[in-house]
Specification:
By secondary structure, the chain is of the alpha/beta class. 45% of the residues lie in helices and 13% in strands. It has helices at 17-29, 48-59, 81-91, 95-129, 140-144, 146-149, 165-173, 208-214, 243-247, 256-270, 289-301, 319-328, 342-347, 354-366, 386-403, 422-430, 444-450, 458-469, 498-506, 508-538, and strands spanning 3-8, 34-39, 63-67, 134-138, 158-160, 182-186, 189-193, 226-228, 231-232, 252-253, 274-277, 307-310, 333-338, 373-378, 408-413, 415-416, 451-452. Helix 10 (256-270) packs parallel to helix 11 (289-301). Residues 220-453 form the Radical SAM core domain.
C-alpha cells in the first residue's frame, strides 16, 4: 500500500490531533507513502459525501482510515437543551411543558439517529465507489461502541480499538495485526485481536511543515486552540470513565522537549497562542511531576507567551506546581469535583481527597491564578443521599470562597452509562440494566436509565435544576470566557463546546445547587417538625 486518506468524521469543530500524530508516525517510518487528511467537520452536511468522493478520486488511496471521535449517547450536562427537555418530559408538573418536551425529544432522537446513520454511510460510500481501497476505522467513539458499530459497517472493515499507529503501519507493510487491538466482521463472524503491548511515545512528534502539506484545511485552525498530547494512559479507576479502556492504565510519557517542540512549531509557524493538553489527566500522579514540571519550565524559558489548559486534578497541585502553572500561562480550567461527599467519591473510585482538591485551589489562588474554573458535578451518583447532596453544595461554597465566586462556575452533569466501564458492570449485576442491552438504542425508557438519575432523589434534583434553568437572566459575570475553553476568542459565543458554554453563560449550575440546598433544608425542617409533633402527641402528660 502506498497511499492513505484519513477522514475525520464530523463532530463539534475540534483540531484532529489523533490523525496528525498518526500521519507523522507513518511518515517518519514510511516517507514514500503518500498521505492526505480530510476534515469533514469543516463542511456543511450536504457537502460531505461529495467532499469524500472528490478527495478519494483525486488522491486514489490504497487505505482509507476513518476517525470517529464522538457519539453522544445522551448529553449528560445542563448546557445541552436535550437534558432540559428530558427533565421537563419526565418531571414537569405543567402538562403543557411535558407536551412541548416530548415534541422536542422526538426531534432530537431523529437528529441523533440521522447523524449516526449518515456517518455510517461514508464507509459504505468508499466501499461502493472505491472498492479496491482497504477501510479502517478507529477513534474514541468507535472504540467505545465497536461491538455495536462493526455490525453496521462494510464487511472486512478493520476496526481499531484505542491506539492505531502500530496497527496501521503493519497493514501498510502487509503484516499480521493479530497482536493489536482490532475487530473485524467476516460474514456473521466477529474476530478480535488483543494488543501485546501499547505503543511507546518516545518518537511521537509533529513535523508541522509536512502536516501543512497534507492537510489543506489547516488554515481553519489558525488562531484557535490546538491539542497537544503529553502522555497516554490513565492509572485511575473512575467507575464511569472510558479513558483506561481506550488508552490503557499504563501511563506512557512523551519527552518534554518533544512536547514543547510541538507547541513552539505551532506558536511560530501558525501563530497559535492557545493550547489544550489532550491527556486524560495532565498530572496523572506524583510520578508525572518531573515531566509536567519540565514542560512548563521549557514554556517559560523559551518565552512562549501562550495560554494553555487541560484536565487537571487540583488535588495533585503543589505550591511549586501552581506557581509554574501561572507563570507558563494556564488559562481557564475544568475541575471534575463530581461530588462534595468523600463517601460518594470513594464509591466511584475517584482516587482523590476533597481536602487535597481544596488545597490545590488554594495554591492556585496564592500563585496569582486569574482564570475561571468550571466545577463539574455528577449529581445522584450511586450512594447519593440528601446529606451528600448538601455536602456538594457546601463544596462549591468552599471552592468559591477560595478562588472567588465570580470565577467559579458549577456545571450540573449526570453520569452517562457507557460500555466497558465499572459503572455499567455494576448496574448489569444489580439488574438496573438488562443483559444484552444496546447502548446506542434510545427510547424514553432507555434514556431515563442511561442518564443515571434514579429514585428517590431524581424528582428533588430535577425540581432544583428546572427551577434554575427557567431563569433567563444569564451569568452574574458578563466577562467573556478566554483561553482553551473558547475556540475563537475574538468572537463572543464561539467555543470549543457550544453546549458547554450555554450552562456557563447562564451560570445556572450555581442556581441549581442553591435551589437544591433550599429544597433539601425545607424538607428537613418539615421532617423535624413532623417528628416533634408526633413526639409531642405520643408523650403522656403527667
Amino acid at each position: 500500500m502506498n497511499s492513505i486518506l484519513y477522514i475525520f468524521l464530523p463532530c463539534k469543530k475540534v483540531y484532529p490531533i489523533g490523525i496528525t500524530y498518526l500521519a507523522d508516525f507513518l511518515h517518519r517510518r514510511k516517507p514514500e507513502v503518500r498521505q492526505r487528511i480530510l476534515d469533514l467537520s469543516l463542511y456543511p452536511v450536504k457537502q460531505r459525501s461529495q467532499a469524500i468522493r472528490d478527495a478519494a478520486a483525486a488522491f486514489k488511496p490504497d487505505l482509507v482510515c476513518f476517525s470517529w471521535r464522538d457519539i453522544q449517547i445522551f448529553s449528560p450536562h445542563e448546557g445541552d437543551s436535550s437534558l432540559e427537555h428530558a427533565f421537563n418530559f419526565y418531571f414537569a408538573s405543567n402538562p403543557l411543558k411535558r407536551i412541548v418536551a416530548s415534541i422536542e425529544g422526538v426531534k432530537q432522537l431523529y437528529r441523533y439517529y440521522s447523524h449516526i446513520y449518515t456517518i455510517l454511510s461514508y464507509p459504505w460510500l468508499i466501499r461502493k465507489e472505491f472498492p479496491k481501497a482497504q477501510i479502517m476505522i478507529g477513534g474514541g467513539a468507535f472504540t467505545a461502541f465497536a461491538d455495536q458499530l462493526i455490525e453496521k459497517l462494510p464487511e472486512g472493515t478493520i476496526g481499531l480499538l484505542g491506539e492505531g499507529e502500530d496497527a496501521i503501519l503493519k497493514v501498510i507493510e502487509g503484516r499480521s495485526i493479530e497482536d493489536e487491538r482490532y475487530i473485524v466482521r467476516e460474514g456473521k463472524h466477529i474476530r478480535k485481536g488483543t494488543q501485546g503491548s501499547p505503543a511507546l511515545l518516545d518518537a511521537l512528534t509533529v513535523d508541522l511543515p509536512y502536516l501543512t502539506s497534507i492537510f489543506p484545511q489547516y488554515r481553519e485552525y489558525e488562531g484557535e486552540a490546538i491539542g497537544v498530547q503529553t502522555k497516554r494512559g490513565c492509572p485511575y479507576d473512575c467507575a464511569f470513565c472510558l479513558y483506561p479502556y481506550i488508552e490503557g492504565k499504563r501511563v506512557r510519557y512523551r519527552p518534554p522537549e518533544m512536547v514543547v517542540k510541538d507547541i513552539s512549531q505551532h506558536y511560530r509557524q501558525w501563530g497559535t497562542r492557545r493550547f489544550w493538553f489532550t491527556d486524560a489527566q495532565f498530572i496523572t500522579g506524583r510520578e508525572a511531576y518531573p515531566q509536567c514540571t519540565e514542560i512548563l519550565e521549557r514554556i517559560v524559558s523559551e518565552r512562549l507567551e501562550i495560554e494553555w489548559s487541560g484536565y487537571i486534578r487540583t488535588s495533585l497541585i503543589t505550591p511549586e506546581v501552581a506557581k509554574l502553572m501561572v507563570r507558563s500561562g494556564v488559562g481557564d480550567l475544568e475541575v471534575a469535583i463530581t461530588s462534595g461527599s468523600q463517601d460518594v467519591l470513594n464509591n466511584l473510585h475517584m482516587g482523590f481527597k476533597l481536602d487535597r482538591l481544596y488545597d490545590g485551589c488554594r495554591y492556585l489562588a496564592e500563585a496569582g491564578f486569574k482564570g475561571k474554573v468550571i466545577l463539574n458535578y455528577s449529581l445522584n451518583s450511586p450512594k447519593e443521599t440528601e446529606e451528600t447532596l448538601l455536602q456538594s453544595v457546601e463544596a462549591y461554597k468552599i471552592v468559591a470562597s477560595i478562588l472567588g465566586e465570580e470565577r467559579v462556575f458549577p456545571l450540573m452533569f449526570f453520569l452517562g452509562i457507557q460500555p466497558n466501564t465499572d459503572l455499567e458492570q455494576r448496574l448489569l449485576e444489580e439488574g438496573y440494566l438488562s443483559a444484552g442491552y444496546n447502548p446506542l438504542m434510545l427510547t424514553p425508557n432507555s434514556i431515563r436509565k442511561l442518564l443515571y438519575n434514579p429514585a428517590p432523589l431524581n424528582k428533588i434534583i430535577a425540581k432544583a435544576c428546572l427551577r434554575a434553568w427557567e431563569r433567563k437572566d444569564g451569568s452574574r459575570d458578563p466577562r467573556q470566557w478566554s483561553g482553551s475553553l473558547s475556540q475563537n476568542a475574538g468572537r463572543a459565543g464561539q467555543y470549543a463546546d457550544s453546549n458547554l458554554v450555554r450552562g456557563i453563560e447562564r451560570n445556572s449550575g450555581r442556581d441549581a445547587l442553591l435551589s437544591l440546598e433550599e429544597i433539601l433544608k425545607s424538607r428537613k425542617s418539615s421532617q423535624d417538625r413532623s417528628i416533634a409533633e408526633n413526639t409531642s402527641v405520643s408523650t403522656p402528660v403527667h
